[in-house]
Design brief:
The complex is a heterodimer of chains A (247) and B (262). Chain A is of the alpha/beta class and 247 residues long. Chain A has one domain: Rossmann fold. Chain A is 39% helix and 26% strand. A six-stranded mixed sheet of chain A has the order 6-7-8-3-9-10, sandwiched between helices. In chain A, helix 3 packs across helix 4 and helix 4 packs across helix 5. Chain A is globular and about 50 Å long. Chain B is mainly alpha-helical and 262 residues long. Chain B has one domain. The chains are: A alpha/beta (247), B mainly alpha (262).
């Protein structure tokens, strides 16, 4: 199995406070990893380090067999990122936005690629609409289309269905699953929606206070703790560790 | 009418002053700059009442100054727009290098000033019968002089925005004006106290505007002065890139790139 993300003893300290503390894990091609944890657990900082926009205090990261952040531009050309908390310029049309990002990723034949992705994500009807006029469900699909422009080998997703109604969220998950199967895409995804993680992820890494507390397939993790669902597992582990820290 | 509620709102703004230093610029920075620009201008006028080309000197200075101001904004305000639209992280996680970002913004600034300068020159000619192109071939090195310095200042402002985030937004609009009273823009270097002149000679703007006044006054273009402008510009631009590189590395260490748009 080819390792596409390899993290060894990763630590990030902000002003004396460890946001990520000696974390090690690896991800193989085609895995869908749910990177879970309560607010402030270190998820976003870890993704930031994997994407080369946050420099680690210590430890080593290799993405697609290249050390990060040293080879960040080379790696970033082969991966992509989508988050509802990051927007495309809302004063441009969807087509203009996708054209700009096609050029940033050196996509060959941008108009053709945009047509393909528009069909895939069902965004053709509003390709020429100004982005700010779209609903949050439509924006989520446009963000995903942007994330697939360069046909990434790894897709980093931060809360991919946050702010979406259940129907729109289900459509996004279905599209992601299909893309993952068809392209053997690796997905590294944070989410607070445990139902979503159970449906999407083949593996879960649970972090709290910068440390990994559990790592494995969602069903195994839930069964090992004698819980009924991932949500129950999440709540119990988060409270357990918080109580432990408080006592 | 509740004095308490009025007081609460006053308090809300006073709280901002306590930890948001750019808010103080409204109190001190702008009034001080106005005082200096118009103070020096009045001194110049008082000393040179017979200057026949005063209107031309003023309009020429205004147009060149605007080139500098717009080119600086071309970089830093474009960066701010990426912050406002929450697009920064999309750019940072693409293969885009920051040097590419800066180069694009520099070019965008050139397009903007080409339009602005043409418009201003046309209006100055239409309303005041001032032909900006009287400067002739001298116009080009002088324009390059203000453009490159504008790039340097814009790059430093962008570096500060990277470091401090949107709280430093005021700088994007205001830092260029710091050079207005001291760059001998609307009045010659001779207006300044003698002890201050050597320091002001380290600004490319001082030499650009002195050269402009010399050419509009019927003198020639001093090649030595132009060479000095280019040397100073090169030093400031390299320095600006160095500041940017340090701030960018610092932003990565602090995780500021993840939070830059919050």
């Amino acid at each position: 199995m080819e390792t596409v993300i390899d993290v060894q003893h990763l630590t990030k300290i902000f002003d004396g406070n460890p946001a990520v503390a000696d974390v090690s894990f690896s991800v193989t091609r085609g895995e869908v990893v749910g990177f879970l944890g309560p607010n402030g657990a270190g998820k976003t900082t870890t993704i930031g380090m994997l994407l080369g926009v946050v420099s680690p205090t210590s430890g080593a990261i290799r993405v697609l067999d290249r050390p990060m952040p040293r080879f960040r531009r080379e790696v970033l050309a082969r991966v992509n990122f989508s988050s509802p908390y990051v927007s495309l310029p809302n004063n441009l049309s969807v087509r203009e936005n996708l054209t700009v990002f096609s050029h940033l990723y050196h996509v060959t034949d941008p108009p053709r690629r945009i047509r393909e992705l528009a069909a895939l994500f069902g965004i053709e009807p509003y390709l020429d609409r100004i982005t700010r006029a779209l609903s949050s469900g439509e924006v989520a699909r446009v963000n995903l289309a942007k994330a697939f422009l360069n046909d990434p080998e790894i897709l980093f997703l931060d809360e991919p269905t946050a702010a979406l109604d259940p129907d729109a969220a289900d459509q996004v998950r279905t599209q992601l699953r299909r893309m993952q199967r068809e392209r053997r895409l690796t997905i590294f995804c944070t989410s607070h929606n445990m139902l979503e993680v159970e449906r999407l992820a083949t593996r879960v890494i649970f972090v709290h206070r910068g440390r990994i507390l559990a790592d494995g397939p969602p069903r195994d993790i839930v069964a090992a703790r004698g819980k009924a669902s991932l949500e129950e597992f999440f709540v119990s582990l988060a409270r357990e560790t918080s109580d432990g820290a408080a006592s | 009418m509740s004095a308490r509620r009025i007081g609460a709102l006053l308090l809300r703004h006073l709280y901002v002053w306590r930890r948001h230093w750019p808010a103080w610029t409204d109190l001190f920075y702008w009034p001080l700059l106005d005082l200096m620009v118009f103070g020096f201008l009045a001194t110049y006028l008082a000393r040179s009442q017979n200057t026949p080309m005063f209107l031309g000197l003023l309009l020429g200075a205004l147009i060149l100054w605007d080139l500098f101001f717009r080119i600086q904004q071309g970089i830093s305000v474009s960066f701010l727009q990426e912050m406002w639209t929450r697009n920064l992280l999309n750019l940072f996680v693409s293969p885009l290098a920051m040097t590419e970002f800066l180069a694009a913004m520099m070019l965008f600034g050139l397009i903007k000033i080409a339009i602005t300068a043409t418009m201003m020159a046309a209006v100055a000619w239409g309303l005041y019968e001032f032909d900006f192109f009287t400067l002739g071939p001298a116009l080009w090195p002088l324009a390059v002089g203000v453009i490159v310095f504008g790039w340097a200042v814009g790059t430093v402002v962008t570096a500060i925005l990277l470091r401090f985030g949107p709280s430093a937004e005021t700088l994007a609009w205001s830092l260029a004006f710091l050079f207005q009273p001291f760059g001998a823009v609307f009045y010659p270097l001779s207006v300044f106290p003698e002890w201050l002149r050597p320091a002001l000679g380290l600004l490319p703007l001082t030499h650009v505007f002195e050269a402009m006044r010399a050419v509009l006054g019927g003198g020639g273009l001093d090649a030595g002065r132009i060479a000095w402008i280019f040397v100073l510009d090169a030093v400031y631009l390299v320095g600006a890139f160095a500041v940017f590189a340090v701030m960018f590395r610092g932003s990565m260490a602090r995780g500021a790139l993840l939070k830059a748009q919050d």
